[in-house]
Design a protein that fits this description.
The protein has 480 residues and is mostly beta strands. The chain has one domain: Outer membrane protein transport protein (OMPP1/FadL/TodX) (Porin, Beta Barrel). Helix content is 14%, strand content 51%. The chain has 7 helices and 18 strands. A 14-stranded antiparallel barrel has the order 1-2-3-4-5-7-8-11-12-13-14-15-16-18. The N terminus is likely disordered.
Length: 480
């Protein structure tokens, strides 16, 4: 029964990864990424994020602006198999599904170019993933409740069913403002120095309410109310025994009253509503090489030291870690990005890229970085065809490979390797304006985790994790 209290801890560690990129990083910040993906050697305005040194090779001097909007929708599905689940619905395997959405994800890019210098900036959601809601909670919550009939059946025979009203909603956003300067050292080489200021804004809201069991085979009744009433009744009997001079019986009844009160407290409603905020700075370096039909870009983002602080509205879980003012590590891992593009024909360009996220160097809550083996690797490719003077068509692919162990994976925070695909078009609607549209989707692998001690219950169980992800985007680039 003690484990019941611990289940609510999980509310505050949910990971909502709706975007492309590493465990905590969003790399799809411009519509050109959605429709081409391999942007590590870009020399267009999206390079302000993907390849800032490449801005030295923008097609003209002056101001370059870009406004983008994306709509991202994701599901997170966990099929959990645990024998005690039979007590609520009759099936050992349950499906827990959460829906994450970010209906509007804006990003803004700007650059001012002279012959040798480019000063640039951009604002975007650099990580997190919008909001997610699990209307029926998660297996890590319910598995604790599912143990109640087994725990009660010794003293209350034929107790074999339970029910619970469980809910969880989370929101995670990392907003980033990046500023920097690019210098064109030669006709073929440029370098960039910049910094991104990151602001984290998270919220977690959840509850476990109305925990019920069919005590002694009867109807489902509220467990907290039953044991609270039982505790009061036993206390009255204890007092009566004491008044009658039967101290031995009074002591025995008092102990039983306290035991019943403890069970009542553990099965009381639990609620959590906490905001978490924090900020940190990311130094960024980049270089770019241009020669004839080739463009090659390299960018390195340093590890961002970041802590988030609790601003707690409600915490009836009894877990001090989510009280007001508590700090938790939330580092953003360093990133190495390498990209190359080649003009195959006058109207056809190919591009490739590689990302490595140094996840093991980034401090996480509960030391989860210790369960990451080698960091995240991404392999990217894209093609762009100038179909007409005013229209471009493009497509791209990205392979993301996570390197995490079973101990990292849970229904509240899991990472599954994937293939992502993007298609789209660009339309030059005036000499100074171009509009980009794109659709981007991800096919995730399944990850199966079999454990002998499922969520601390000392019973075996299995979780199968997967996701879906779809992103729509439109943006406009303007020069003057």
């Amino acid at each position: 029964m003690r484990k019941l209290l611990l289940s609510v801890v999980l509310f505050a560690t949910v990971s909502l990864s709706t975007f492309a990129g590493g465990l905590l990083t969003n790399t799809n910040q411009h519509i050109l990424f959605l429709r081409n993906i391999a942007r590590g050697a870009s020399v267009e305005i999206d390079a302000a994020y993907s390849n800032p040194a490449g801005l030295a090779f923008l097609h003209r001097n002056g101001f370059h602006l870009s406004l983008n909007g994306q709509s991202a929708f994701q599901t997170r599905t966990i099929h959990s198999t645990f024998k005690p689940f039979v007590g609520f619905g009759g099936e050992e395997t349950k499906k827990f599904e959460g829906e994450a959405s970010a209906p509007i994800v804006p990003s803004l890019f700007g650059a001012y170019k002279t012959d040798k210098w480019v000063f640039s900036g951009h604002f975007a959601v650099g990580g997190g993933g919008g909001k997610a809601t699990f209307n029926d909670g998660l297996a890590s919550f319910e598995s604790q409740i599912a143990m109640i009939p087994l725990m009660l059946s010794e003293k209350f025979p034929n107790t074999n069913q339970y029910s619970v009203n469980s809910y969880m909603k989370g929101a995670q956003m990392i907003y980033g403002l990046q500023l920097g300067a690019t210098y064109k050292a030669t006709d073929h080489f440029s370098a960039y120095v910049g910094v991104r200021v990151n602001y984290v804004s998270n919220n977690y809201t959840g509850y476990l309410r109305d925990i019920r069991a069919n005590i002694m085979g009867g109807a489902l009744i509220n467990v907290n109310e039953f044991f609270d009433d039982l505790s009061k009744s036993l206390l009255l009997q204890s007092n009566a025994a004491a008044e009658a001079g039967n101290s031995e019986l009074a002591t025995a009844l008092l102990l039983k009253s306290k035991e019943a009160k403890g069970t009542a407290d553990l099965t009381a409603d639990k609620e959590l509503n906490v905001d978490q905020t924090g900020w940190g700075a990311t130094p960024i370096l980049g270089v770019h090489f241009n020669y004839n039909k080739w463009n090659v870009g390299v960018k390195y983002e340093f590890n961002t030291k970041l802590n988030i602080e609790n601003k707690t509205k409600v915490n009836s879980t009894g877990v001090a870690g989510y009280d007001q003012g508590i700090n938790t590590p939330h580092d953003i891992p360093s990133l190495l990005s390498v990209g190359a593009s080649y003009q195959l024909f006058p109207t056809l360009k190919a591009s490739v890229g590689y990302h490595h996220f140094f996840d093991t160097h980034a401090k996480m809550a509960s030391g989860k970085e210790d369960y990451i083996k080698n960091g995240t690797n991404e392999y990217l490719g894209g093609l762009e065809w100038d179909a007409l003077d005013w229209a471009q068509l493009s497509a791209g692919i990205q392979r993301t490979r996570y390197s995490v162990s079973d101990n990292y994976q849970s229904d509240i925070s899991f990472a599954v390797s994937s293939f992502s695909y993007g298609v789209g078009a660009g339309f030059k609607i005036s000499p100074n304006m171009k509009v980009n549209i794109a659709y981007f989707w991800t096919n995730y692998n399944d990850y199966n985790k079999n454990v002998a001690n499922y969520n601390g219950t000392n019973l075996p169980g299995t979780d199968k994790f997967t996701r879906t992800n779809k992103v729509f985007g439109i943006g406009a680039d303007y020069t003057f």
